[in-house]
Specification:
The protein is an alpha/beta fold and 164 residues long. The chain has a single domain, classed as HUPs (Rossmann fold). Helix content is 39%, strand content 17%. Strands 3-2-1-4-5 form a five-stranded parallel sheet. The longest helix is centred in the middle third of the chain and has 29 residues. The chain starts with a strand and ends in an 8-residue tail after the last strand. 26% of the residues are buried.
Length: 164
């Protein structure tokens, strides 16, 4: 069957569905499965600017370093949550990569010789003025772009609807 799996997660509810599928189901049934947990920080964050014309390049660089460190800490916190929730995750490899989402997924799967990629289900956009913040990164996958470059099968975790 599958021997090496790439689990893409970024802290959202949909990504948690993929985590549950991998660690509670696939790993439980296949204890020799090698799992890499990948969190991608979209490279576009580096072009974040504010009133840069007021800032020196040193101020801008310091700000970008701060944001990058903050994102690394949030990734580590999320990875600890995964390890605490799923004891089998202790055997997984965790990787945080800055890059284009689709190209990074395909590149990491190829580099790590994965024979399956697992992602969470499609997530609907929240309204622009929604005051409730959702946990996780907001970046989205361009499915067509990803499918054109996939090096192995893609499994999308089923969306679980809450019971009323």
């Amino acid at each position: 069957m599958f021997t090496s799996l790439l689990l893409c997660t970024h802290g959202t509810a949909g990504a948690a569905q993929a985590e549950r599928l991998v660690f509670a189901d696939l790993c439980a049934k296949n204890p020799d499965l090698r799992v890499t947990v990948l969190t991608i920080i979209d490279k576009d964050w580096q072009s974040m600017t504010g009133d840069d014309w007021l800032n020196s390049s040193k101020t801008h660089t310091t700000f970008l370093d701060h944001v990058e460190q903050q994102m690394k800490e949030e990734n580590e916190e999320d990875w600890q949550r995964i390890k605490k929730t799923y004891p089998l995750a202790a055997e997984a490899t965790f990787a945080g990569v800055v890059g284009s989402i689709e190209e990074t997924i395909a590149g990491e799967a190829k580099k790590r010789k994965c024979d399956l990629i697992v992602i969470g289900p499609y997530r609907e956009s929240r309204r622009l003025f929604n005051l409730k913040m959702e946990k996780g990164l907001r970046s989205r996958i361009d499915a067509i772009k990803l499918h054109e470059i996939l090096p192995c099968p893609l499994l999308i975790a089923p969306k679980v609807t809450p019971v009323a």
